[in-house]
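Subject: design request, 270 residues
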């Protein structure tokens, strides 16, 4: 990192002006479905050039095919691969010459309890949910430091990480660790003009139940339980989470860093 003399070395953004004429470049991981897809489209709809990262090419193409969303470049990549961080950052720089926002959204949830853990399962969740965001943020940092309006890292955690989650504690633990990294990075990187925030979704309508291998009956039971424990009495949408990510990452939020914003219908306070 290039050391700056003080946190005030970069002028504060003027909320009434656009800090940079050129469109921002945004990397979104896990962009093939759900929250990642909605986030990629939301940034693109505002004029950003989005590098949409995911393991499968076909869902990424669907993300990019939405009419009227702007420039989305699909990049098939497994964020746990050793060369993935460099590949992703290089793709962004080759596309536009800059990187302004990194959204660490990719994650997996398996749902085992302590008695059912395997070494492979533990390693996979840690590698995807925690190690990959660390290494990708590290690789992106030099480019984020040069972002004209200040670079942004936005991590996607979970509001359940602030409570007990029996039967899913490892997933919650990885997301709680990501929140601690969010707060720590916010302090570490403030002198370098990079803000760090997190969005903590609650119960959201996404294909996560299918990805966990739940049956339709199990998915329905989970949905009923989630709604019963959410004060607004519904599940949120991926678009509602994407809205929060875009707002926290906006130049107008230049004085916001280190925050973890729940988007959970009030579940974390109930």
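Subject: RE: design request

Done. Sequence follows.
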């Amino acid at each position: 990192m290039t050391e700056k003399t003080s946190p005030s070395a970069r002028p504060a953004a003027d909320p009434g002006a656009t800090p940079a004429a050129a469109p921002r470049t945004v990397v979104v991981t896990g962009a093939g479905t759900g929250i990642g897809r909605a986030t990629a489209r939301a940034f693109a709809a505002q004029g950003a050039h989005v590098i949409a990262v995911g393991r499968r090419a076909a869902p990424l193409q669907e993300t990019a095919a939405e009419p009227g969303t702007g420039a989305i470049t699909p990049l098939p990549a497994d964020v746990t691969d050793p060369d993935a961080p460099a590949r992703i950052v290089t793709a962004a720089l080759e596309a536009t010459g800059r990187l302004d926002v990194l959204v660490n959204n990719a994650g997996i949830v398996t749902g085992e309890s302590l008695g059912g853990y395997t070494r492979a399962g533990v390693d996979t969740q840690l590698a995807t949910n925690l190690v990959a965001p660390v290494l990708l943020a590290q690789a992106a940092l030099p480019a984020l430091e040069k972002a004209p309006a200040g670079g942004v890292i936005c991590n996607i955690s979970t509001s359940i990480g602030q409570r007990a989650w029996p039967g899913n504690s490892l997933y919650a633990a990885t997301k709680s660790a990501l929140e601690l990294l969010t707060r720590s990075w916010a302090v570490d990187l403030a002198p370098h003009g990079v803000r760090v925030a997190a969005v903590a979704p609650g119960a959201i309508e996404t294909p996560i139940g299918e990805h966990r291998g739940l049956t339709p009956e199990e998915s329905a039971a989970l949905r009923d339980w989630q709604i019963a424990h959410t004060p607004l009495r519904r599940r949120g949408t991926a678009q509602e989470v994407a809205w929060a990510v875009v707002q926290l990452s906006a130049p107008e939020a230049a004085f916001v860093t280190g925050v973890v914003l729940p988007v959970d219908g009030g579940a974390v306070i109930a």
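The beta strands are 25-29, 49-54, 72-76, 101-104, 151-156, 194-201, 204-205, 236-237, 260-263.
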